[in-house]
Amino acid sequence: MNIPTPHIEAKKGDFAKTVLMPGDPLRARFIAEHYLEDAVLVNSVRQMSGYTGTYKGKRVSVMASGMGMPSMGIYSYELFNGYDVENIIRIGTAGALREDLHLRDLVFGIGACTNSNFAAQYQLPGSFAPTASFPLLRKAVEAAEKREGLHYMVGNLLSSDTFYSDSNLDVNWRKMGVLAVEMEAAALYMNAARTGKQALAICTISDSIVTGEATNSAEREKSFRDMMELALEIAPE
Question: Which residues form the active site (predicted)?
């Protein structure tokens, strides 16, 4: 793949081996400004801000993915294939599908169900099950166990192509034990599988499909620090 890519203007070597990927460019900037030392802006194409700096001595990058599987599919593909990135940790938001998941709880996506046709490109003779990389998942659980007062669950996410839907199918996914709905993890997991790289989705519950509770945009940008800090702690060098 030629560098720069069609969607990333960075030079070879500008990205660390591990990239944290929030959906929101403003969350990427918030992490760079509040957690990374000597952070440098390495991408601003389409305002998808990407930064590289250090966190407790290790080199880490953070870059926005945008919303939805097509956007995540583009950026994670180019990072894995063009910039030699080895690990991508999605740090995004999700809507709870269970009553015992509350605002600001974390969900670690061991798998990502989807209503998308993203996997059709692989021409497989069946359905592919997108899953997280176990080494990253294990590190996340171990780190979460050490954080006092942190409530988290490990299980399936639903990566949906639709935010506004004519059909209310959430109850059917809930019957299958799916914890929360978001819009990017399945594409990330499939790109990681295809390239032999590692990926994990860590999602903060920003709203509840069950109870109607919700956070606002400012809270989603700046207040989900447990997710940000945990991802930075587990990021491989």
Answer: 207
